[in-house]
Amino acid sequence: MSSFDPTADTTPEGAERQDEERRRAAQGEPPFVEAATPESRLAGSLREAAITAGIVAAITLFFFAFRTEIAIGGLELTVRWPVWLSWIAIAFVGRFLLSFFLYRADRTKASGAAKGARGAAAVGLGKVLAVVFLLIALTLPILLDTLFPSQNRYILDLAILILTYVMLGWGLNIVVGLAGLLDLGYVAFYAVGAYSFALLSQNFGLGFWVCLPMAGLFAALWGLMLGFPVLRLRGDYLAIVTLAFGEIIRVVLLNWADFTGGPNGLLGIPKPTLFGLEFSRGEGSFSDYFGLDYSPIQRFVFLYYIILALALLTNFITLRLRKLPVGRAWEALREDEIACRSLGINTTNVKLTAFATGAMFGGFAGSFFATRQGFISPESFTFMESAIILAIVVLGGLGSQVGVVIASVVMIGGIEMLRNLGVLTDFFGPSFDPTQYRMLFFGLAMVLIMVWKPRGLVSSRSPSAIYKEKKKIGADMVAQGEGH
Amino acid sequence: MSAVMVEEGMKGAPLLSVRGVETFYGKIQALRGIDIDVYEGEIVTMIGANGAGKSTLMMTICGNPQARNGQVIYRGEDITRLPTHTIMAKSIAQSPEGRRIFGRMTVMENLQMGALLQDEAYFDDDLRQVFELFPRLRERQGQRGGTLSGGEQQMLAIGRALMSRPRLLLLDEPSLGLAPLIVKQIFDAIRELNQSQGLTVFLVEQNAFHALRLAHRGYVMVNGAITMSGTGRELLAREEVRSAYLEGGAH
């Protein structure tokens, strides 16, 4: 402002020029100018990582590096440089990876056509992923046997658990993902399936394979029974009623002690047999018949293939149904109930079939759960289970089959992996028990996924009808809040 | 020409006949004894201001809400108390108010939903006819319904209704929120359907000028009651109609 001339701004031109000058002085260098020689991605990422590491170092210095403990005669200072340094290292590496692979890539990303191409690539990726998942799933017992013979049984057990949730997720996907009916009590059908099998086997001496379809039917029947009172409900109201339904089933199982065993549950549920061959030692067993050495792992492999087959059956039926009128009606119902009725669709039937079909798969999964555990009690069917299944469906992307698989592996496998994270005790001290924080990490993971992908991991939907050429609806077109 | 068709139509029993229909929303009476007739091969329009009860009449014909008193008769059958989906399965199709297309489904899937109750053998033919009527839909067939423009969505809503091979097409304000040029396209398509295929159309509209020019006969609804009726030309010529509905709308 030293060049201020009281006479110059008496004319318009002078005032304008002065104004310009003043503005330039205030601004300095014009912002947003591209660097003449753009630094390489590696150098830039390293620089950003270093800055982040510096900030982390400064912030966490007093929290991680120094620790005071109450001792006799005052406080005792302990210095923990390794902890501090490892956090800095984590910040550095994390930021570097983000900058190098994500943020930089975004800056060069073109919109429009490139976005469409990315959408198409995502579709291709989904297909490839599905095939890869299937191949891994089919050969898993052999893979484990060669790769991790020592942990064979543990991982196989985990795989069975994950597949159970995949199947439950696929079953719930029909109700929530396709038909758009928010069901918070899905675990009720899981419980009905499990108790149906357990009670049938104990009271009538029936085996797994006879009870499996019956359990599915019973669950479907309960699906219809839930469906009738909630036909007129949608959204929040439906969610509350289904939540109550799930609790009613659990409370009945808990209190009807004469019939269900109450809180003690039911014991001694028979194991599945392979055409009458039991997986045990001795005469008439699987290993005896085929002349193999007995190994407890054989039963796990068998259970694994049962749940894999059940899950694949669920997937296959769902995919077929989507292309049939009833499946299309489910999806239309999710979009607009009034439009459905104006097209002559009986929305009552559509809702009931969705509830019944979803419940049936829940029932199948339930009876598998019972035979795997050999013991069931109402404790296994709390609201938490419903919430986890729903979380799998929502995080996977409503209506997406591959999404459910990914979400199940991440959520169930992830929770289980947290048990083994002994590394964390190095940071939080020996008293830190990772299993106690599982739910915290679980919640954190859900929040992160929802921030990163608000419509779920796989948010694109492939059309069920194609006239000439297949086109894909990208996630970017399925905007939040549209299509209601 | 319209007069000829009206007289021809008048001879037989009406395709759709509404007799003394009264509809209530709780205690509020929305329709106060409506009588209308729609004959085979006609375009009949119902004009009226906002809140007159036009859409309520349309919804009452479809059975949601059901009329408290009076009768709705379609091809000699009393459909007053039937559930909506049964009514809509009787060769009646509706393009509801606000279009209500399935936003996340493609154009193709939307059209397929319209044909859900129809024999699959007709599907390819019907699809071709809809695409001939609205070539834009052919171009957009793989696109998600929600990403279409308003006019295209209206075309899709009508096309979806046509896929069920209706004899009677109910249209609720197809011109709502559309540019005049698009409105003209849509009304031309309706006329084309009526002339080439003899489709009977019952049209509820606020755009009185276009609707009365298109329709063979028209009714005017005020506060839940019919106040005037006549051929489209007659109504267009009447002073009360001009002053109430056409001031500023006729150019």
Automatic annotation (TrEMBL), chain A:
<feature type="transmembrane region" description="Helical">
    <location>
        <begin position="84"/>
        <end position="103"/>
    </location>
</feature>
<feature type="transmembrane region" description="Helical">
    <location>
        <begin position="206"/>
        <end position="225"/>
    </location>
</feature>
<feature type="transmembrane region" description="Helical">
    <location>
        <begin position="154"/>
        <end position="174"/>
    </location>
</feature>
<protein>
    <submittedName>
        <fullName>Amino acid/amide ABC transporter membrane protein 2, HAAT family</fullName>
    </submittedName>
</protein>
<feature type="compositionally biased region" description="Polar residues">
    <location>
        <begin position="1"/>
        <end position="10"/>
    </location>
</feature>
<dbReference type="GO" id="GO:0005886">
    <property type="term" value="C:plasma membrane"/>
</dbReference>
<dbReference type="InterPro" id="IPR001851">
    <property type="entry name" value="ABC_transp_permease"/>
</dbReference>
<keyword id="KW-1133">Transmembrane helix</keyword>
<dbReference type="InterPro" id="IPR043428">
    <property type="entry name" value="LivM-like"/>
</dbReference>
<feature type="transmembrane region" description="Helical">
    <location>
        <begin position="302"/>
        <end position="321"/>
    </location>
</feature>
<feature type="transmembrane region" description="Helical">
    <location>
        <begin position="387"/>
        <end position="415"/>
    </location>
</feature>
<feature type="transmembrane region" description="Helical">
    <location>
        <begin position="237"/>
        <end position="257"/>
    </location>
</feature>
<feature type="region of interest" description="Disordered">
    <location>
        <begin position="1"/>
        <end position="31"/>
    </location>
</feature>
<feature type="transmembrane region" description="Helical">
    <location>
        <begin position="124"/>
        <end position="148"/>
    </location>
</feature>
<keyword id="KW-0812">Transmembrane</keyword>
<dbReference type="Pfam" id="PF02653">
    <property type="entry name" value="BPD_transp_2"/>
</dbReference>
<feature type="transmembrane region" description="Helical">
    <location>
        <begin position="49"/>
        <end position="72"/>
    </location>
</feature>
<feature type="compositionally biased region" description="Basic and acidic residues">
    <location>
        <begin position="14"/>
        <end position="26"/>
    </location>
</feature>
<dbReference type="GO" id="GO:0015658">
    <property type="term" value="F:branched-chain amino acid transmembrane transporter activity"/>
</dbReference>
<feature type="transmembrane region" description="Helical">
    <location>
        <begin position="181"/>
        <end position="200"/>
    </location>
</feature>
<keyword id="KW-1003">Cell membrane</keyword>
<keyword id="KW-0472">Membrane</keyword>
From TrEMBL, chain B:
<dbReference type="InterPro" id="IPR027417">
    <property type="entry name" value="P-loop_NTPase"/>
</dbReference>
<keyword id="KW-0067">ATP-binding</keyword>
<protein>
    <submittedName>
        <fullName>Branched-chain amino acid transport system ATP-binding protein</fullName>
    </submittedName>
</protein>
<keyword id="KW-0029">Amino-acid transport</keyword>
<dbReference type="GO" id="GO:0005524">
    <property type="term" value="F:ATP binding"/>
</dbReference>
<comment type="similarity">
    <text>Belongs to the ABC transporter superfamily.</text>
</comment>
<feature type="domain" description="ABC transporter">
    <location>
        <begin position="16"/>
        <end position="248"/>
    </location>
</feature>
<dbReference type="InterPro" id="IPR017871">
    <property type="entry name" value="ABC_transporter-like_CS"/>
</dbReference>
<dbReference type="GO" id="GO:0016887">
    <property type="term" value="F:ATP hydrolysis activity"/>
</dbReference>
<keyword id="KW-0547">Nucleotide-binding</keyword>
<keyword id="KW-0813">Transport</keyword>
<dbReference type="GO" id="GO:0015658">
    <property type="term" value="F:branched-chain amino acid transmembrane transporter activity"/>
</dbReference>
<dbReference type="InterPro" id="IPR030660">
    <property type="entry name" value="ABC_branched_ATPase_LivF/BraG"/>
</dbReference>
<dbReference type="InterPro" id="IPR052156">
    <property type="entry name" value="BCAA_Transport_ATP-bd_LivF"/>
</dbReference>
<dbReference type="GO" id="GO:0015807">
    <property type="term" value="P:L-amino acid transport"/>
</dbReference>
<dbReference type="InterPro" id="IPR003439">
    <property type="entry name" value="ABC_transporter-like_ATP-bd"/>
</dbReference>
<dbReference type="Pfam" id="PF00005">
    <property type="entry name" value="ABC_tran"/>
</dbReference>
<dbReference type="InterPro" id="IPR003593">
    <property type="entry name" value="AAA+_ATPase"/>
</dbReference>
